[in-house]
Amino acid sequence: MMGGTADIELIDKKGKRLDGRKADEMRPVTIEAGVLKRANGSAYLEWGGNKVLAGVFGPREAIPRHSQDATKAIVNFRYNMAPFSVDDRKRPGPDRRSSEIGKVAAEAFANVIVLEQFPRASVDIVVEILEAAAGTRCAAITAASVALADAGIPMKGMVASCAAGKAGGKVVLDLAQKEDNFGEADVPLAMNMTTGEVVLLQMDGDLSPKEFETALDYAMKGCKDIYEIQKKALLTRYQRVIEGEA
Ligand code: CDP
Fold first, then answer.
1. Is the preceding omega at residue 83 within 30 degrees of 0, hence cis?
2. What top-level class would CATH report for the domain 29-240?
């Protein structure tokens, strides 16, 4: 959410950000795949101050039955923010913001999952935001993609997600909390990393066409870095399986 202006210097005279990052630098990201026993696939992700858990269930018979599609599977994505995940306690349960994020994320994954293989089924993706620090939709999509791969769900490619935006008058990669609250724009992006297709692109705030191009360029580079971390998480997961530990 872009919060407008405040008396806060988001970029110092040397061009460094509040947390010391350069404009095109991402916050640290770690991902662990296969963390939930009862899910078909799962992942735990930390991204800066974000802590996110993703579980995948299915493909399984879609319920209620009238939601079934005789030609392909449907994708459900539930994004939920824990009440304790933000500074001001969040009212539990769904709201407009979480419905919106769930909808755009489900549509992003409907583009990559091979749905035709599973008529009448649903693929249910559940993401819990345990701690939020800006960029949770990108964190949620990135974790969900690893969970889908962990579940062995056929996909045309892995989805990686990262945002760029503008804060303190400068285009920056991966906005931190204060940059998101007091910055000028936020552009979350998600891509199919096999085909290069864009599966999600949103924009909050204002950018000139030139700034938008730079932001998109930063976000694409961010997705590439995220993709490498996703692959490592899956390799580690299957190394554990081979060694008989999971
Ligand atoms: O998280 P993301 O940037 O994808 O979505 P947003 O709607 O732009 O929200 C930005 C940030 O605002 C979240 O990541 C949270 O850190 C914070 N937020 C909050 O503090 N309380 C809420 N009820 C919703 C969001």
1. no
2. alpha beta
